[in-house]
């Protein structure tokens, strides 16, 4: 079965048919680097990575682009509020450039810790300004955009599919009907969105600005993705992803401006991942439930425990994060690592299991079912140890859990001595001492099992 994914705008499962045989051009919206990324963002980046790995596993050569937004993303996606980078700079008493550099560094560290493969290109918005200006120029020439004293806007009335894409009706809306949106009195329709902001009025002090045919200014957020995807993948390209929050504003805007400028689609397939919730709620600073990867690590969970947790849910389902859920995922993950570490050197992989695994990937990237196949394999009494090892290595190319090459734990001399002393205490039926030594080992991060060969310890991951 070829790869099927759910396309949000076609509203159905579609079979991916690449533009160029055997190759996939793939673009994902990246972070706005004005603050730390949270585990919700990271769920989406793991989804992108797993999809990329699955495509490669299924035989495609993938070119993956994920941008870094370091200018132009206003606090509201609808052109209101401050630029997030300027806001971050004020908050921290740094320059916008410093803020961008600082949070990009942390973002890249999280990506690495989660075993997310680096995209082939990670363009920064600030390095792609000429390409953005080029699209805005074409839109103005074609009459799909217009200039006011404050900005250049895309005229949504020139893109007939706009309402269908956003799922909203705009005709009846009066300008300024939404108080919180700062409106430009020269805007034709309140839903027209900015392609370029001039450094005048509320943006007079904007630090980042570039020369353009319309004076000094800076790009709107949506035009960034249109320009960066086109620059590195051409237009149309195959696949565009991010999380579900971008289906109503950001992506319709990308589609409208790119299609209006060039008369061809931007991307052939649009796939969106569902949100991560925390204790059933949307994450927010005010609720105190906005966690970073480092918050998980502080509680002794590994980044790959979190990756494992995200793989247990289908990307189109909400993932409700709880500490109990993470604890359970971490225990299962530790168990898996221990079982894999004891397998023999790889022999030939088992094609039957790999086939089943592959079918689940092809069926809308069902990682939860794919993971279940891995467990079934590990527990199967009929499959030889080395065959299991080889099959796990193959599956891990997609799961990205770093299972390949795991070896049984070599204990430090101190721990080995505690184990020896505990075995002696048990042989001497000194249960008090034996319990004390168990607690000591557990306090040092080991789980302790009593087997026929004596005490067996495993480092908790
Ligand atoms: P942003 O920096 O706000 O544009 O978000 C970066 C990425 O994370 C985007 O692809 C968002 O769609 C995604 N995202 C934001 N919040 C969540 C969440 N709670 N769960 C999953 N993905 C999210
Ligand atoms: Zn984007």
Descriptive notes:
By secondary structure, this protein is α/β, with parallel strands linked by helices. The protein folds into 3 domains: 270 residues, HUPs (Rossmann fold); 101 residues, Four Helix Bundle (Hemerythrin (Met), subunit A); 47 residues, no CATH class. Helices cover 42% and strands 15% of the residues. It contains 15 helices and 14 strands. The protein has a 4-stranded parallel β-sheet, with helices on both faces. Strand 9, helix 7 and strand 10 form a beta-alpha-beta unit. The longest helix has 19 residues. The two termini are 36 Å apart. About 2% of the residues have low confidence. The structure holds adenosine monophosphate (AMP) and zinc ion. Zinc ion (ZN) binds next to helix 7. The site of adenosine monophosphate (AMP) has 14 residues, from helix 1 and strand 9. It is found in: Cytoplasm. It catalyses: tRNA(Cys) + L-cysteine + ATP = L-cysteinyl-tRNA(Cys) + AMP + diphosphate. It comes from Candidatus Doudnabacteria bacterium RIFCSPHIGHO2_02_FULL_46_11. It holds the Pfam family CysS_C. Its main location: cytoplasm.
Largest sheet, if any?
4 strands, parallel
DSSP summary, beta strand count:
14
Task: Indicate how many domains the architecture comprises.
Answer: 3
Radius of gyration: 26 Å
Shape: elongated
The second-level CATH architecture of the largest domain is 3-Layer(aba) Sandwich
Question: β content, as a range?
Answer: 5-15%
In the CATH hierarchy, what is the superfamily of the largest domain?
HUPs
Secondary structure tally, helices: 15
Chemical compounds bound to the protein: adenosine monophosphate, zinc ion
Order of helices and strands: EEEHEHHHEEHEEHEHEEHHEHHHHHHEE
- Widest β-sheet, arrangement of strands: 4-3-9-10
Question: Which class of secondary structure composition applies to the elements?
Answer: alpha/beta
Runs with pLDDT <50, length 5+?
172-180
Bin the helical content. Answer: 40-55%
Intertermini distance? 36 Å
pLDDT averaged over residues = 94
The CATH class name of the largest domain reads Alpha Beta
Give the CATH topology of the largest domain: Rossmann fold
